[in-house]
Specification:
Chains A, C: It is found in: Nucleus. The complex is a heterotetramer, with two copies of chain A and two copies of chain B. By secondary structure, chain A is α/β, with parallel strands linked by helices. Chain A is about 25% helix and about 30% strand. Chain A folds into two domains: about 55 residues, Vcp-like ATPase, Chain A, domain 2 (Roll); about 170 residues, Vaccinia Virus protein VP39 (Rossmann fold, 3-Layer(aba) Sandwich), CATH 3.40.50. Chain A contains ten helices and 15 strands. In chain A, strands 9-8-7-10-11-15-12-13 form an eight-stranded mixed sheet, sandwiched between helices. A four-stranded antiparallel sheet of chain A has the order 2-1-6-5, covered by helices on one side. Chain B is α/β, with parallel strands linked by helices. Chain B has 16 helices and 16 strands. The longest helix of chain B is centred in the middle third of the chain and has 36 residues. Classes of the chains: A alpha/beta, B alpha/beta. At the C-D interface, β12, α9, α10, β13 and β14 of C face α9, α11, α13, β14 and β15 of D.
């Protein structure tokens, strides 16, 4: 297993995803002799996991079962330990496309944060590209390095612990793309520009607040970036449901009765028009939006460093 | 106390008032010596009686309300903001005050605001936090320890927001902005003769009544034994608003249209209806059920509060009617007969109103499949009048659309949905709110025209062509007009 | 006819809406002896309109027909002569509800603009309320007065031609609600406050740009408004369509053929697997979003003037 | 000229390049002495050849391109902004320059930028306009009179944006951000073995190829006589990217699965397919037809440009092959046989690849009903791999969802749609763009797991329970984990 290559069977040292049910899962480090507790009972790594195919159903000690999934950057994003606010797959998707990333791309990122985007970036630029990621918080930088090692991608990434606004990315004229997710991105635009290749490249800045975007756009313009474009992307998830709606009783069935002239003042007969009506229902499938959805993650500002 | 005549209405015993804390609303009857629980605080409304609507109160010891003259912002002068959070290591030990310490402060009767101040002073990390994080911290703590509520007069804005937040299942998840669209698209105004068919606890009816201000007339169509108006009663409308509010049983509609209508078979008594309301929510899905179970908790709570108003009124009437215990039974029978007679008289009046087939509009918002409702009730609407149908799901409105096209007699059909986005606007940190409603339901609206029954075939095909949303044709027409 | 009361028949002097087809309509002033040109031919007011029922189908001189509709503020909004950017029904709906307007309400508005919102406000506060509308552009104020007169609502509205930021609304302590749609609403917040009743009331400011909102919110806070709440509402319209999708040919029909062993190198047989396949389709109704929709009209900021 | 080795690739004859003006893109083949029409300007690309991709050119007289070193902003110093528009009376006479005047300036060879400056100076109302209105005016005029284009290298970003704007019907209205979701949700990366079934002119295939960078393998499933790859060819991929691109006819899928597959009956030649593509767009509605007619105009134009690249290539090959005219016929027969043999060989290879049933993912984006495609093609995917299905409509994906639940072997099913909002960010006038896309289509994604065929009944019911999106259950599980 690695985050940049599928493996068929679960191996000692792998990071696997234990899938318990709808949006309920967690990552587990596979280790000989270890056991993992779930609500369905215990999973014994040596017996239940190692050597099994990814995607297998594993029966836990209490008889319930789970699926063991091969990790992907997207599953990791849903399950990683949060050290900071993280970027989710919806934003990551558009960032990756708009930065024009592909195998071989050199990308700079700051901050590393919880590594959610980092894993996705590494996946896309592998096997010949590289990610330079800068994190000013020492603990976080250290933890990210550890995760990259565990996930078999350390050769594709360099983690630097410094302040990108003061010290930049530590590289110059080699990046195809730069991504910023820091409180004051406008202070890093100059560094971003010098990290990018001379022939140009793409930049993206993620900011939750519009004021940050305004300053960042001004800075981008100042540094000669073109195609400055701010956008927002929201995911609307639909639950698939079978709905059944009642057909209202407009009295068609009751017409015969009404001519029979029951006196409604007779209490025993009061319910009768309702009783003999066949309340039909209509069934249909519907994609029903969730009651609450994520209403905002951040604004994404993209720009191009042009040739001149 | 304030000069009420200049300052608007006072809070009176028996009113339906709305408690407000931040964005949370709750409708309650104003009663003496009654414990209210709201946002994890308990208190009595006794002291609020006589104050002007809009007054903010603080909950003091013993659950008493004390008017608060100024809503001050928490002291910002203590803030010394760090520039970023790189040096903060979260070890869960940053607050030096223990739970016991805080409890002790509370027991001493220390006010919430002071507790928050003490929490700030005893936080080792507060000064290192960014200004933003500091604000967040203060807000969180303030919400937890300060007990401030405002009592406001009910309105469609407040009640529709409240219902959507607290008991969406009761109003078929009709979001307040969708209701707002209905009122405008339906051209609801004083003087109209409106037909309303809703199973939204009477919220839609109340909204229509508010917009009509007692002018004109409303015919509420109801399923089962009688209309449900729990939410309507929360509006606190003057009695005269109900003079021109009529109701008509859905189960009599077909017979009214076919000419076989008679008042001999009345539907069962209104009391029976509560059951119907609770039993079916139009959903078979497990998830929904699970959700609604969750909702039911708060529902029960709020519904209780509201129903108590009704109970109260009923009790009052009984107390007046039953002067002597020995006359009770006789009186009851006579009273029952009188009521029955009145119901029948009103039903005949309402049937006559419908038979005129000149309603100024139709509003449908129910748990039922809207298609049969719409097709039938449109019969009672005059030409050149708007109609609006709400449904929580899109699919039934597609059917309505198709059926209406086949029927003819309607134009300008529009199926729509609104997106509502709330914003946080604060210096240097403005952005859309982080959560938003996933959906507020769907509307189908249109305008009635004279239905050309004789030439239905040719008019149908032409109407279809006429309405086909073709951009190309629109452009050409623009040039011609 | 008036904009605050339905009439059954078309009368001389009425403003009626001529409906030609999907979203194609225009307003017409009904006058004895007048004719109106449409693409379906001429409509003669005396013969074709006056005395007819609203909602009637009217056959034009070329044989095509139109519907004549009773005006409503919503139809007016769709058909009025634009003198400025106007507010549409989606925003108007939420403004009306959030300002808690109803019969009897006193409302102040600035600017009058093309009168789109004004008509809706007058409709809602009639018959006992009043609209005070302030417009700084003299021509526009005059035109609005004229329209209100023609639409039978002049008793419900007072149009003032002045600069609301300098001179306010010309009334004080009588309004239940104030609406602002001006370039610098923050300059009018003080005037708005003094127009509102002493017991309090509601205010709404409409601005296309977020910077205007930021300044307005600050001003509202300064003037002691509470419940300051900014929102945005967008209408998503669906076209109802019958869609039919092809069932892909996965070769089920061709199985018999393949065993028969036709040689594909024989050109005359090459098309045969396609030819005898029954390409089925699935039909369904769908609500299809328009390709383009209105993406932004403005931010609506609501607030309450509180008791103290 | 610039040092190409340091500055990235140069524009070469025969390349597929993208012309860009503001937000408008157009893919064109780079050919000498060929008139290009783009954004109402005509010009020749001859002078662009040899320049670096990303260079901005100005169109000068005779349609020649001249590199523009700096993209300067229009002089802001002439602006004297009025504060509001109350004094502007629009009488249509504010511009003193006549159409003839402007034509005269153009004929004199005056550059666009100067014309705009003259227009400003001759506008009587310009000074009275607000700064905002002035900017708007300048932008409008600039767009009309200045002819500046940039030539950029194609990419998924550019081509998907271009197709969505210019020929959405060709790509089933797949919006670029929806495509972006597919690539991420599908975990597309170097080294994968992917199955792609699309009828999006090869755009989705191209996007997958770009993300795989020539590593791994792709099996494209195609309907009719052969895969359509008009958009794929616009990417300008190196030849080696095509070495591991395989294709397999949809019409052979059932026989492959049932074990009766043979290469004896090959589908008809690729040429036949173009017709199929043009004939059906999956819609019966008049409006759509009208819309697509409108689109067709630009479509035809752009498609022409693109197809010329392919023609060009074909001609090159023929020119090499046919050395002597007298050998032509014989050669042709031999060539045809060789091609046939090669096709069959490749088909056998591809069938073998599929038979391994170990694909690393499945991407579907077609005009067909997705349900049969999905259910069949998932057979070829290994367990614990993602799949993503796009459909322009929501309803077919509801069916896919239901069918997949019945089938089992998939988890984490998610039906979704994205909202895309673009912003104008300018000092003091930032807001969302005034128009936005109404919809970008729908996605159904999920993950395969080992399909427990024996116990399908019990596993089915448990799988259903397992996946039921119940908030309540989720919360309980969270506590346990």
């Amino acid at each position: 297993m690695s985050f940049v290559e599928y493996g068929d069977t679960i191996k000692d040292g792998d990071t696997a995803i234990v899938f318990l049910g709808h949006e309920s899962m967690f990552p587990v480090k596979v280790q000989h002799g270890t056991v993992t507790q779930t609500k369905y009972g215990v999973i014994r790594h040596s017996m239940d996991l190692i050597g099994k195919k990814y995607g297998s159903k594993v029966t836990c000690s209490k008889g319930g079962w789970v699926f063991i999934l091969h990790p992907t950057p997207e599953l990791w994003t849903m399950n990683l330990p949060h050290r900071t606010q993280i970027l989710y797959s919806t934003d990551i998707s558009i960032i990756t496309m708009m930065l024009e990333l592909k195998p071989g791309s050199i990308v700079c990122e700051s901050g590393t944060g919880s590594g959610s985007l980092s894993h996705a970036l590494i996946r896309t630029v592998a096997p010949t590209g590289h990610l330079y990621t800068v994190e000013f918080h020492q603990q976080r930088a250290e933890k990210a390095r550890e995760e990259f090692r565990e996930h078999g991608v350390e050769h594709l990434v360099t983690v630097t612990n410094q302040d990108v606004c003061k010290n930049g990315f530590g590289v110059s004229n080699i990046a195809d793309a730069v991504f910023l997710d820091i409180p004051s991105p406008w202070e890093a635009i100059g560094h971003a520009k010098s990290a990018l290749k001379a022939e140009g490249g793409r930049i993206c800045s993620f900011s939750p607040c519009i004021e940050q975007v305004q300053r960042t756009c001004l800075a981008m313009e100042e540094y000669g970036f073109t195609e400055i474009n701010t956008l927002e992307i929201l995911l609307r998830v639909y639950n698939v449901r079978t709905i059944s709606l009642q057909i209202p009783d407009l009295g068609k069935a009751a017409e015969d009765n009404s001519s029979a002239g029951f006196d409604s003042s007779n209490p025993s007969n009061q319910g009768s028009p309702c009783a003999n009506l066949q309340q039909g229902t209509v069934q249909f499938k519907s994609g029903v939006p969730l009651r609450e959805m994520v209403g905002h993650t951040g604004y994404l500002t993209f720009a191009t460093k042009s040739l001149f | 106390m304030e000069d009420g005549s200049r300052l608007g209405p006072r809070i009176c015993e028996g009113d339906c008032a709305v408690l407000k804390r931040d964005d949370v609303f709750k409708a309650v009857p104003v009663l003496r010596r009654r414990k209210i629980i709201f946002e994890k605080q308990w208190f009595y409304l006794d002291n609020a009686i006589g104050h002007i609507y809009g007054t903010t109160f603080e909950v003091t010891s013993g659950g008493n309300l004390q008017p608060k003259q100024e809503v001050e912002e928490t002291a910002t002068e203590t803030k010394e903001a760090g520039t970023d959070n790189r040096n903060i290591v979260d070890d869960g030990k940053s607050q030096k005050l223990t739970h016991d310490d805080i409890k002790a402060l509370k027991d001493k009767g220390i006010k919430g605001q002071e507790i928050v101040q003490q929490l700030i002073e005893n936080s080792t990390t507060f000064r290192d936090k960014t200004e933003f994080a500091q604000d967040k911290y203060i807000k969180k703590k303030k919400k937890k320890y300060e007990a401030v509520i405002t009592i406001v007069k009910p309105s469609t804005r407040i009640l529709s927001t409240m219902y959507y937040a607290r008991e969406p299942g009761k109003i078929n998840h009709l979001r307040y902005d969708t209701l707002a669209q209905m009122l405008t698209l339906g051209n609801i105004r004083a003087g109209n003769k409106m037909i309303v068919m809703e199973t939204c606890a009477g919220l839609v009816l109340g909204a229509v009544m508010e917009r009509m201000g007692g002018y004109g007339s409303i015919i509420q169509m109801y399923p089962g034994g009688g209309p449900v108006r729990a939410a309507t009663s929360c509006f606190g409308f003057p009695k005269l608003f109900f003079d021109n509010l009529h109701e008509f049983p859905l189960s009599k509609v077909d017979s009214l249209l076919s000419g076989t209508f008679s008042t001999e078979t009345l539907p069962s008594e209104p009391e029976d209806n509560v059951l119907v309301e609770e039993e079916s929510n139009g959903l078979t899905d497990e998830k929904q059920t699970a959700l609604q179970e969750g909702e039911e908790e708060s529902t029960t709570e709020a519904a209780m509060e509201i129903n108590q108003i009704e109970e109260q009124e009923t009790t009052d009437i009984n107390a007046e009617d039953v002067e002597f215990k020995e006359n009770k039974e006789k009186e009851n029978v006579r009273e029952k007969q009188r009521k029955q007679w009145e119901r029948r008289k009103k039903l005949i009046e309402t049937a006559a109103l419908l038979r005129e087939k000149n309603a100024d509009g139709l509003i449908v918002a129910s748990k039922f499949h809207p298609s049969p409702l719409l097709l039938t009730l449109l019969e009672f609407v005059a030409p050149s009048r708007p109609f609006v149908v709400y449904c929580q799901y899109k699919e039934p409105l597609l059917e309505c659309y198709t059926k209406l096209r086949e029927r003819g007699g309607v134009i300008n059909l529009k199926l729509s949905e609104t997106w509502l986005r709330n914003y946080q606007v604060l210096p240097d940190r403005s952005h859309p709110k982080l959560t938003m409603s996933g959906g507020g339901g769907y509307l189908l609206s249109g305008i009635t025209v004279v239905l050309d029954k004789g030439k239905s075939d040719s008019s149908h095909s032409q109407a279809l062509k006429m309405e086909e949303p073709s951009c190309k044709r629109c452009k050409v027409q623009d040039l011609h007009c």
